[in-house]
Amino acid sequence: MKEFDYIIVGGGCAGLSLAYELEINEKLKNKTLAIIEPRTEYKKDKTWSFWKVASHNFDDCVKKNWENFSVNMPKKTNHLECNIYPYQSIDSGLFYEKINNKLKENDNIYLFKDISEINSKNSFVFNSVPSIKKDHRNLWQHFCGVEVETQSDFFDDEIFNLMDFDCDQRESVHFFYTLPYSKTTALIETTWLSKMNDNSKKDYDNQIKDYIENHLNLKNYKITYKEEGAIPLFYPTYEETKNKINIGTAGGMTRLSTGYTFLNIQEHSKYICENIENISKTKKYKISSKYQFLDEIFLRVLEKHPEKMPDIFFKMFKASPKTVIKFLSNKSNFFEDLSIIFKMPKITFIKALFY
Ligand SMILES: Cc1cc2nc3c(=O)[nH]c(=O)nc-3n(C[C@H](O)[C@H](O)[C@H](O)COP(=O)(O)OP(=O)(O)OC[C@H]3O[C@@H](n4cnc5c(N)ncnc54)[C@H](O)[C@@H]3O)c2cc1C
């Protein structure tokens, strides 16, 4: 069986981002790479959005940039500006196409459906397939979104809505998220933070229909695309293995308080690429432990007091938008962290230290 210098297990966001980074930096001229990916075809299956706090390779896959956003509670709205760090949405269909076209140019890159097709004994492995055991104590961010199209102008495409808590909470944390791509098209998503121990919150179609028709008051529309997913708000655990690095969700690249992962994946890919010649001796890349600690406390509060979360999120966005964005995107300094922490209900958070 054929052997390779590098193997990437999983050709999704993290696997393809890493392969692309290695390829454009000419790290695969004299090295071979096998990508293991079971899917038979690539098509748009996700919309990756984030505040652009760092550069990345996929500006040409961006569907839309926004410089304004809002956060809503029942009877309260906060309008915020994000022109310093615009919010971007990447179309996964364009992303897959761009990367796969580039990778085809290099004869040292091979694609396989299953790792059993190759000899992986002597290769360095980058694994993006998480091993997640079912545990009823774990929190998830689970969601379903639809892209809708209207016949006449309906949306204000200058501003997106990050969180609208003016909806049924069902003893969990629930909000809607609306990305207006144009005056006639938008992605509308229902998002839950819950333990997903039953399917009671997964009547997504009804939730979305009710929100569109009775909350947004949009009656004439058609659904053109749908995406559904669940992001683990906990870190998968692995034994440290020589010659293997986990990447993507499997590699702990998700920010647990927000689910944001895409830009962390890009930064991790750059780090691996810069150190590829000496990768087995390179220090493991991690989201800074200060965010892991703060997110853990935040999620403890969320678990214990889901009813307080709309207000907590709303208060967080009372800080300067630049500070909140940097905090949520792992780029804040000590003083910016403090200014967010001071917006939080102190007693609730101090108690959470001892749960
Ligand atoms: C619907 C959705 C929307 C999201 N939106 C955002 C967002 O807006 N912003 C953000 O920052 N993050 C978002 N995320 C979170 C995160 O960015 C994505 O989950 C991202 O795709 C994670 O990349 P990954 O490579 O770790 O996993 P994936 O992209 O899921 O890639 C894993 C790959 O492994 C393959 N695979 C599975 N089993 C095997 C196997 N046995 N052997 C080999 N390959 C296998 C899969 O087919 C897949 O291609 C979203 C997640 C989902 C599910």
What can you see in these coordinates?
- This protein is of the alpha/beta class.
- The protein has 3 domains: 6-43 and 92-131 and 236-281, FAD/NAD(P)-binding domain (3-Layer(bba) Sandwich); 140-232, Alpha-Beta Plaits (2-Layer Sandwich); 289-352, no CATH class.
- 27% of the residues lie in helices and 26% in strands.
- The chain is built from 9 helices and 15 strands.
- It has a 7-stranded mixed sheet with strand order 6-5-11-12-13-10-14, sandwiched between helices. The protein has a 5-stranded parallel sheet with strand order 8-2-1-9-15, covered by helices on one side. Strands 3-7-4 form a 3-stranded antiparallel sheet.
- Helix 1 (13-24) runs parallel beside helix 4.
- The termini are far apart.
- 35% of the residues are buried.
- The mean pLDDT is 95.
- The structure holds flavin-adenine dinucleotide (FAD).
Query: Largest beta sheet: what is the strand line-up?
Result: 6-5-11-12-13-10-14
Contiguous uncertain segments of 5+ residues = none
Q: Could you name the CATH class of the largest domain?
A: Alpha Beta
Task: Name the CATH superfamily assignment of the largest domain.
Answer: FAD/NAD(P)-binding domain
The global form is: globular
Question: Which CATH architecture of the largest domain is right?
Answer: 3-Layer(bba) Sandwich
Q: Catalogue the ligands.
A: flavin-adenine dinucleotide
Strand content: 25-35%
